[in-house]
Amino acid sequence: MIVSKPKNTDEYIANFPVEIQLVLEEVRATIKTAAPNATEAMSYSMPAFKDNGLLVWFAAHTKHIGFYPRASAIEKFYDKLISYTFSKGAIQFPLTAPMPLALITEIVKYRVEENKNRINKRKVF
Questions:
Q1: Which domains does the chain have, with CATH numbers?
Q2: Distance between CA atoms of 118 and 111, rounded to whole angstroms?
Q3: Which of 2, 5, 42, 46 has the fewest CB atoms within 10 Å of its CB?
Q4: How far is residue 114 from each of residues 7, 33, 57, 121, measured CA to CA in Å?
Q5: Residues 6+ away with beta carbon under 8 Å from 26
Q6: 59 to 41, 70, 79, 114: CA distances (angstroms)
Q7: What is the pLDDT of residue 125?
Q8: Largest Cα–Cα distance in the chain?
Q9: Which residues contact 52 (CB under 8 A, 6 or more apart)?
Q10: What's this model's pTM, rounded to 2 decimal places?
């Protein structure tokens, strides 16, 4: 359980039991690989990644890892999320099963392109 507000992802992860830390590090590494130009940040007291704006957030909960890729990604990957509990902007990956790293990779890559396209549309030539 988090006692104080973490200043960075390392502090956030360190607040959990070792078995949860391993899962969080696995998710973190997957996001880093899928978005190599992204930078880590803390947002809403959760680890987040930024690349032309915020990409995704993730957080540990009692029975799941929360993954927050924005509503557009939930809509895009709806068919692949049917077996998970999800809402407009959040997905719950249960701690009782392996993390769906390939799906996380797909979602992150989608969000990278989405942010890039949004930025490119704003540019005036």
A1: 9-120 (3.90.1150.200)
A2: 10
A3: 5
A4: 28, 17, 16, 11
A5: 99, 101
A6: 13, 14, 23, 22
A7: 53
A8: 51
A9: 112, 115, 116, 118, 119
A10: 0.91
